[in-house]
Amino acid sequence: MMSLFYESFPEVVQVDGKEYPIVTDFREWIRFADMVSSREIDEQEKVFLMMQWFLNPPKSMQKPQIDALFSFYRADDLELHPVKSEVDENETPVIRKPPLFDWCIDAKFVLGDFRRYYNINLLTVKYLHWWEFRSLFNALPDDSNCQKRIAYRATDLSKIKDKSERKRIAKIQREIAIPYLTEEEEEYQLGDMLWNL
What we know:
Layout: E1 12-15, E2 18-21, H1 26-37, H2 43-49, H3 63-74, H4 107-118, H5 130-138, H6 145-154, H7 163-176, H8 183-195
Antiparallel strand pairs: 1-2
Helix pairs in contact: 1-5, 2-8
């Protein structure tokens, strides 16, 4: 894990011992997320488009280059999220859950929360490193619109005993639900992107 106080945010990704300079502004990585999740762009085109995030693109996009981009996107070195296994200790597949946040669908709440809590206008800020943006996003207080939406989406209705409260939360969840790929669609999409190069 890197220290935000004395280590610089990365400007490169490492692939097989070689450094590749990449774009680092937060807008570009939100665009990356939108491109990857798009159902309108086929997988081969997505792989080709990923070259745009390299300042000096590699000759071809292979699994290591793609993995490096996804690692940067997730900000793995910041350890913002605990690593979750797809299989539990008993080798039982983990039940997949719908996404809790979408940069496109939830954009207005991100803009509002950054203005409210950090006095940062994301529409006019000249530059903000993706990892700094992610750190600030993760540090938003529980009463921020973004964190509330995540909390509502993550709420397990089966654990709410009060019937009227469960009904209220279920209504909110329907109103703010994010459309997502089925497990089969996602596996097919990622399989095409990472393995059939």
